[in-house]
């Protein structure tokens, strides 16, 4: 389960960012996870709960924003959903696309300090 190593990295990075901001406790970490990132959001949430124990994020909640995969069709100038498993053919003009616009994200987008440390 590689989600545990991802959760550990999120916790370490969120802790670094919080401390750089002068915060020693975090209540919420928000991450964006793309549909094609190879991460199972429920497994990431479980791994986060396990990995946060004994850290500055021990009481923190993980909020996962799922990002659907979208590709761009040049001939149509149209964005379309790729889906899972991914299908990179434009549904409008039936041409292949190699321009993935979103769906591979795995990023921290927000860290909320605990009220006690704010």
TrEMBL record:
Pfam families: HypA
Domain of life: Bacteria
Entry keyword annotation includes Phosphoprotein: no
Binding site for Ni(2+): 2
InterPro entries assigned: Hydgase_Ni_incorp_HypA/HybF_CS (IPR020538), HypA/HybF (IPR000688)
PANTHER family: HYDROGENASE MATURATION FACTOR HYPA
Family to which this protein belongs: Belongs to the HypA/HybF family.
Chain's role: Involved in the maturation of [NiFe] hydrogenases. Required for nickel insertion into the metal center of the hydrogenase.
Protein's UniProt name: Hydrogenase maturation factor HypA
Species annotation: Streptomyces violarus
Lineage of origin: Bacteria, Bacillati, Actinomycetota, Actinomycetes, Kitasatosporales
């Amino acid at each position: 389960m590689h989600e545990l190593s991802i959760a550990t990295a999120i916790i370490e990075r969120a802790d670094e960012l919080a401390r750089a901001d002068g915060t020693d406790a975090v209540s919420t970490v928000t991450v964006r996870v793309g549909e094609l990132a190879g991460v199972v959001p429920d497994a990431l949430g479980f791994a986060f709960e396990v990995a946060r124990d004994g850290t500055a994020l021990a009481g923190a909640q993980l909020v996962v924003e799922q990002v659907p995969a979208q590709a761009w069709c040049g001939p149509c100038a149209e964005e379309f959903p790729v889906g899972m498993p991914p299908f990179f053919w434009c549904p409008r003009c039936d041409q292949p696309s190699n321009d993935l616009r979103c769906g591979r994200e795995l990023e921290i987008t927000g860290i909320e300090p605990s009220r006690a440390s704010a």
